[in-house]
């Protein structure tokens, strides 16, 4: 069977590729997962009996840089997808590589931030802020890490020349997950860092 | 059945009517500017002065509005919900509504709980 025949799947009742419906269903369930974490953070906000509090510890410039990286990575991955769909391998590899670099920098930023906070005396068990902050941003960071690993596998596939336009959906699904990770951060950034 | 359902599946399905790189870059610039506005609103609201005093009471709604706008731009253009099947929009928007209700309900519940604890009700 040819690559093209593999990429074309049997007709579905919705007329949509099942993998695309599956990733959107997964993303929908993830909305509820992050809603529970965000609401937990919000209901415990300002209930600490001891510090460090958000006002004392959160750093806006560093996280703004991380936010910009994630926003740029969303732009880069959609440009990579455009390259994949139009058969432009050079554009696909360049922008997908840039997306991965941005993702790695974001994870690095978060690791540095966590280390700094622990050094400043904020641990999971320190107070309600510590517990809810590390849980929320930690789960988001885990999602980013999974996204980076996923994109690296797609990048290797593209490097090996096994991502022709017929298989661009493989990148589109990974890109949808990556965009979701970005939109979650679009909510977390103002809620945690700017409304402290 | 809509036009998407009738379309052949495979890359044709994925590539239909997606915007070009020009629009993606424009959206990227708008997102970057909106993030700058968020940080500027935060900084101004936390500084002394007439502008800071004006912005402080409305900074939270302003930040939420900017955040919602950014969220919608990414979902509509980068995630292609504007062009893709309405079924996919439904799969995303319906849980999103439930998620919003969960957040608002929990906040309301805990505000009531803490107020009741302090004997104010």
Detailed description of the structure:
The complex is a heterodimer of chains A (196) and B (121). Chain A has 196 residues and is mainly alpha-helical. Chain A is built from 7 helices and no strands. In chain A, 78% of the residues lie in helices and 0% in strands. The longest helix of chain A is centred in the C-terminal third of the chain and has 32 residues, at 128-159. Chain B has 121 residues and is mostly helical. In chain B, helix 3 (21-45) packs antiparallel against helix 5 (59-78). The longest helix of chain B is centred in the last third of the chain and has 32 residues, at 86-117. Mean pLDDT of chain B is 86; it is low at 1-15. The chains are: A mainly alpha (196), B mainly alpha (121). At the A-B interface, helix 2, helix 4 and helix 7 of A face helix 1, helix 2, helix 3, helix 5 and helix 6 of B.
Q: What's this model, at a glance?
A:
The complex is a heterodimer of chains A (196) and B (121). Chain A is built from seven helices and no strands.
Jot down its keywords.
A: 196 residues, mainly alpha, 7 helices, B: 121 residues, flat
Low-confidence stretches of chain B: 1-15
Range of strand content of chain A = under 5%
Largest interface: A-B, 61 and 58 residues
Percent in helix of chain A: over 70%
Q: What is the 3D shape of chain A?
A: elongated
Please report the total strand number of chain B as a whole number: 0
Share of helical residues of chain B: over 70%
Indicate the topology.
The complex is a heterodimer of chains A (196) and B (121).
Chain A: H1 3-7, H2 18-44, H3 54-57, H4 60-85, H5 89-119, H6 128-159, H7 168-194
Helix pairs in contact in A: 2-6, 2-7, 4-5, 4-7, 5-6, 6-7
Chain B: H1 3-6, H2 11-15, H3 21-45, H4 50-55, H5 59-78, H6 86-117
Helix pairs in contact in B: 3-5
């Amino acid at each position: 069977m040819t690559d093209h025949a593999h990429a074309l799947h049997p007709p579905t009742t919705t007329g949509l590729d099942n993998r695309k419906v599956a990733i959107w269903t997964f993303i929908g369930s993830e909305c509820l997962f992050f809603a529970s974490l965000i609401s937990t953070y919000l209901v415990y906000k300002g209930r600490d009996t001891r510090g460090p509090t958000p006002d004392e510890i959160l750093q806006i410039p560093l996280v703004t840089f991380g936010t910009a990286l994630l926003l740029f990575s969303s732009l880069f991955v959609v440009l990579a997808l455009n390259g994949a769909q139009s058969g432009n391998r050079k554009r696909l590899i360049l922008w997908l590589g840039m997306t991965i670099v941005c993702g790695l920098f974001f994870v690095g930023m978060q690791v540095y931030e966590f280390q700094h906070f622990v050094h400043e005396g904020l641990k999971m068990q320190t107070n309600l802020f510590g517990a809810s902050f590390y849980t929320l941003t930690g789960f988001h960071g885990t999602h980013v890490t999974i996204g980076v690993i996923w994109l690296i596998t797609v990048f290797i596939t593209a490097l090996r020349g096994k991502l022709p336009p017929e298989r661009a959906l493989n990148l589109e699904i990974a890109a949808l997950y990556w965009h979701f990770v970005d939109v979650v951060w679009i909510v977390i950034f103002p809620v945690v860092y700017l409304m402290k | 059945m809509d036009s998407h359902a009738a379309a052949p599946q495979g890359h044709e399905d994925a590539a239909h009517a997606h915007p070009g790189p020009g629009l993606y870059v424009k959206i990227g610039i708008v997102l970057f500017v909106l993030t700058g506005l968020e940080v500027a609103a935060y900084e101004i609201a936390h500084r002394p002065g007439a502008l800071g005093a004006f912005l402080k009471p409305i900074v939270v709604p302003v930040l939420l509005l900017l955040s919602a706008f950014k969220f919608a731009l990414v979902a509509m253009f980068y995630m292609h919900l504007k062009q893709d099947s309405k079924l996919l929009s439904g799969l995303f928007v319906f849980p999103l509504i439930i998620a919003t209700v969960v957040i608002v309900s929990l906040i309301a519940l805990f505000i009531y709980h803490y107020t009741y604890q302090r004997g104010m009700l």
